[in-house]
Automatic annotation (TrEMBL), chains A, B:
Keyword list, A-Z: Aminoacyl-tRNA synthetase, ATP-binding, Cytoplasm, Ligase, Nucleotide-binding, Protein biosynthesis
Family: Belongs to the class-II aminoacyl-tRNA synthetase family. Type 2 subfamily.
Pfam families associated with the record: tRNA-synt_2, tRNA_anti-codon
Listed GO MF terms: aspartate-tRNA ligase activity; ATP binding; RNA binding
Cellular localisation: Cytoplasm
Cellular component per GO, a single term: cytosol
Protein's recorded name: Aspartate--tRNA ligase, cytoplasmic
């Protein structure tokens, strides 16, 4: 038997049925009724019996909750909406998807059924085989309900602009509601999917927009927009390419603890945990652990995991919890061995996205238009003094050892783009004075260090350096920075028993995705973002 | 120039040098000396000048700290120890590795150089080209120091049992210390690598063992043992196979927040965080978020990340922070669609380890011998009542709806192994009474639920279920369990707007690795374990 046993659910027992159908269904129906697991979809449907016998009985209704009953054995094969094309014309197919929209028009009901980034039009028209009641039932289903539909694939006379499947539609044969949505939705997918247009667009004011907090408060619905479906698939792609490339280069994946006994970056901006009778902290970076893995002979390691920052920054680009893509690598003579690996990692991520996530990028751009991301292969590498000169030529006043302010960082991005036509570049040789104590000084310079940042569309997405691998020298540099040696004893101890020279870096996953796509808020690329004001859902 | 410019480091300026060498080196040396970055490896070496000119000058010493200087440009090509085989005989190669052991014997010094799981013997013998001073220098290098060695690959007359490379050794030509280890080691790799033998082994008492806490306190050294090198490579393999397989099956990787505003599993055993002016909790499971992703149309998702349990359990198998491999999947009619995916996931993990991590498994078994892991393909699936019967037949008294105690779980594992010859099996249809409120009841049974655990060597490594996807029914079940509806409002809300039937499960990574390898403590497979008494390193 198929799962259509639940068909009586729409009738509250009043519906007139063919004998054969009743015979098939009564046994299970009786059992289910006893359990009160039948539901009534829509009262108007059950009362609409004035036209006598419903020729579509057994072809539509609300399914009994799918509970994996032994008695429901179906060999029904479902087709993915994205695969329904003209080649399937005149075949009947089953789909399971969400009712995106439905619009009744006389004896017709036009529905759009959505499946992730794809959608198809479904047409129900009163006919010899489709009853008035069936069409009315279709038009009364709540949006966002999950439905099983059987329909005949039919070529459309003209392209359907509102669907991903533009050349075909389904002519309905059966429809079963699998899971009902509430009648009132806190936001509509249509509104949440509406393309962002320029300020000068005169239609802009007429369209309802969904604000960020409404989206995030109702993330379960918001995530269903085609753009969001694509964003998080692309984000998964970034992680996949990162891992595949590093694994191919001999890196070992490690897992580093998030609960630590001392603040990893000096004590500021750290979350405190009650740990049994004592306290612990949430790691702000896996750096110490990556370095310990290097000192522990793993040679090349990466880790992907949550990173925590107790910064009270309420900006478009700060989160209190984000995903760090971290790597650390021993090298032979020069930290550029590592910079080259990281540079080619990014080039490969950009190529991989461009080549394998074209459909996702297209879908996202339909809602959030952006210039395609440009990059050079091999990537552009500038030294810090060059950047300072470029900024000075553009009128910025800054000292040789000043850090880049956020506005200058962005200006530099524009200057680099104008000059080199790339949205990604590496800035090497940051002044030692503005980097942490464990950064290896450049032995050939009085001011520079062996450290680097990397930028996408003018914003930093990676910070890294050659780390000091000699415990004595580390103590010397810590003292120079007036760091309390006792507090970092465990860190220093990691280098007492021989450690190869090494360098690495940490990448903020969400920033990479936000900037690659040119989005305006990091919350758009964090599935369940955390900021100083948001801990839910 | 090559990096041997640091050679004068051994001499404190007293060493007699050839003019040409001095010429080459003086410029850089002077600069380096000024910076006081030269080190003296061993005073005995520098004082050992009674024999006149050292014919090996410039062939050994302590390298200046590798700081990525422009002046160090080397085209030296290093060979991996694992690749040094008889085919390379009579070639000179460079290796960088750790000095595992060195043993002076007259005019000879036998060294073993280690590189992760591999090791090779290096021989220094006083000769026409190798000075007495050079050999003495070799014998005085602290164990665990990192060294660059040039040597001629030479066939050995008989196999070298103590090295991974048994048929060849290196006859030394140059040796440079890259990073010195402290003289005193808190533990010796030889001790930490010693095979675990049965209690009846009479040698057992004579060998020094390293206890767990000493290992963990000095994890940077402990991680260097061949077994540990292999364990964490194999662990990375489990994650890789997990992801590759699920990605191939259309699963999307997601990242779920670790900081949440309410305890995910009811409030017990949860760590509290100070979150700005309020509080937050550390997630005990990503389950709610996986389910929200399903309600948000991602269809099939997985996530790998830290999971936190504030349980004061000081056992061999509990950690307060571990790595969860979680998945959740929408299905069409029956949760066995999901159980089958998880079952084949495990089969594929076991096959992948067996086929691609043979060298790691062999290395680990040399220290921790164990019976090879046995599994069936497809995996064995038993129902709970069958397990109860097996236990009763073995003399256990238990009710139909009693949970499995840990001893009974293990006994059952032995019974299943004896009967079916498998170390992995699925136990389906757990009694509803002992599962959480969100578990879908079995509609065909009064006591069973659509839930399952999976076991390796008699211990649970996965727990999962079909979850209730209907908000009304979820409320009904929550009330039945006397769960406060208000506290789980956000969870219930996730299912108000249509959700496909779905099931999933959570796997403890460390348990999988521990049990696959038959290890006796979960701390052996957590790189930096956390338990109620350990937050360091």
């Amino acid at each position: 038997m198929t799962s259509k046993t639940g068909a009586t659910g729409v009738s509250d027992g009043e519906q007139v049925k063919s004998k054969s159908q009743l015979k098939k269904e009564e046994k299970l129906a009786a059992k289910a009724m006893k359990k009160e697991q039948f539901k009534t979809m829509n009262k108007t449907n059950t009362n609409d019996q004035e036209s006598g016998e419903d020729i579509s009985v057994g072809k539509y209704g609300v399914l009994k909750m799918i509970q994996s009953s032994k008695s429901v054995v179906s060999d029904r094969v479902f087709v993915d909406v994205k695969n329904i094309m003209t080649i399937l014309a005149d075949n009947s197919v089953w789909i399971r998807g969400r009712l995106h929209t439905s619009r009744a028009k006389g004896k017709q009901c036009f529905m759009v059924v959505r499946q992730q980034q794809w959608s198809i039009q479904v047409l129900a028209v009163v006919s010899d085989t489709i009853s008035k009641q069936f069409v009315k039932f279709c038009s009364n289903i709540n949006k966002e309900s999950i439905v099983d539909i059987k329909g005949k694939v039919t070529r459309t006379p003209s392209k359907i602009g509102s669907c991903s499947q533009q050349d075909v539609e389904l002519h309905i044969e059966e429809l079963w509601v699998v899971s009902q949505s509430a009648n009132q939705l806190p936001l509509l997918i249509e509104d949440a999917s509406r393309p962002v247009k320029g300020d000068d667009d005169e239609d802009q004011g007429l369209n309802i927009k969904v604000n960020q907090d409404t989206r995030l408060d109702n993330r379960v619905i918001d995530l269903r927009t085609p753009a969001n479906q694509a964003i998080f698939r692309l984000e998964a792609g970034v992680c996949k390419i990162f891992r595949d490339l590093l694994t191919a280069k001999g890196f070992v994946e490690i897992h580093t603890p998030k609960m630590i006994n001392a603040a990893s970056e000096g004590g500021a901006n750290v979350f405190t945990i009650s740990y049994f009778k004592g306290s612990a902290y949430l790691a702000q970076s896996p750096q110490l652990y990556k370095q310990m893995a290097i000192a522990g002979d793993f040679d090349r390691v990466f880790t992907i995991g949550a990173v925590f920052r107790a910064e009270d920054s309420n900006t478009y680009r700060h989160l209190t919890e984000f995903v760090g893509l971290d790597l650390e690598m021993a090298f032979k003579y020069h930290y550029h061995e590592v910079v080259d690996v990281i540079g080619s990692l990014f080039t490969n991520i950009f190529k991989g996205l461009r080549d394998n996530y074209q459909s996702e990028i297209k879908t996202i751009c339909e809602q959030y238009p952006v210039e395609p991301f440009k990059f050079l292969d091999p990537p552009l590498k500038l030294e810090f003094p060059t950047a300072v000169n470029m900024l000075r030529e553009a009128g910025v006043e800054m000292g040789d050892e000043d850090d880049l302010s956020t506005p200058n960082e962005k200006l530099l991005g524009r200057l680099v783009k104008a000059k080199y036509d790339t949205d990604f570049y590496i800035l090497d040789k940051f002044p030692l004075a503005i980097r942490p104590f464990y950064t290896m000084p450049d032995p050939d310079s009085k001011v520079a260090s062996n450290s680097y940042d990397m930028f996408m569309r003018g914003e930093e997405i990676l910070s890294g350096a050659q780390r000091i691998h000699d415990s004595d020298y580390l103590i010397e540099r810590a003292k120079h920075h007036q760091v309390d040696i006792e507090k970092i004893a465990a860190y220093i101890d990691a280098f007492r028993y021989g450690c190869p020279p090494h360098a690495g870096g940490g990448i903020g996953l969400e920033r990479v995705v936000m900037l690659y796509l040119g989005l305006d808020n990091i919350r758009k690329v964090s599935m369940f973002p955390r900021d100083p004001k948001r801990l839910t859902p």
